[in-house]
Specification:
The protein has 326 residues and is of the alpha/beta class. It is 35% helix and 20% strand. Strand 9 (228-233), helix 8 and strand 10 (251-257) form a beta-alpha-beta unit. The radius of gyration is 20 Å and the shape is globular.
Length: 326
Amino acid sequence: MRPPRFWFASPGVVSTLLIPFSWLWRLGTVLRRWRTRPQRAPVPVVCIGNLTVGGAGKTPMAAAWLMRLQDSGHAVHLVSRGYGGSLMGPHRVDPARDSAAEVGDEPLLLAQSAPVWVARDRAAGARAAAAAGASLVLLDDGFQNPGLIKDAAVVMVDASQGFGNRQVVPAGPLREPVAQGLARANLVVLAGEPPAQQLACSRWPELAGALPARLAPVETGLDLNGQPVVAFAGIARPEKFYETLGAMGARLLAFHSFPDHHVYAPQVLERMRREAAVQGAMLVTTEKDAVKLPASFRREVMALPVRMMPTDWGPFDQIITAICTK
């Protein structure tokens, strides 16, 4: 589902009419917290989440932080709900055997560089990770989930969308009120390019102290400058991917956007392959999309890896030091 435009516009008739349903959403959240007994994992848990529906850079941030934690000697495992996958878990993702249909596309991608568990019950997933040797659990999403106690939380905010019209679903994009969510965050990361970050801080003053970060392609040695490209992406914000390609100098002849977590039909893939071949162009997609493609098709497409890079890793290091030395 693509978010409706009125979520990111000035308050209007539609959002106003939906506010009573937002109250029901908020009541449901309160009741869920009241009925749930939070559980503590055997090891420290730090969550990467957001306040809005849709992507805010959690997965590329998780990928970058996992690598940094591993390089620092932490036995870190990631736990995910496994959105889009069929397995309930806890299940340790095996990139060589599991499919995106079973574990979800994001866990399958992240499992290529670190131990990853999918579990609808996040507390059970954290326990399984600890039993398998994890000394630290990184929770991908689940900021609003009350079942697992978080020792720290990082909230991601997309600079181009911010908090939208400040209304809670379905009147707006928020999963919970801004003040309520930010009060539980140890760190807020504002993802985007500097002009968008500046605009976001002026529109949403709560973001003035957020740590800036931006998407950056991983150095692969591939030069896209002047290269004709046909691109496709099934992520929350496909335009970010196309902007990255443009910044690398690629000549975008065509781009095809699909819903987040989209499953590609063979005929759609073949149509895009022919389109690129006819124009003498390279077919390019995201890492997240590539893991869902049939093995026979992956050699036809180039996957561009990106990571979320903060301007300063110091606040992240301070969070880990604090929760690991309690």
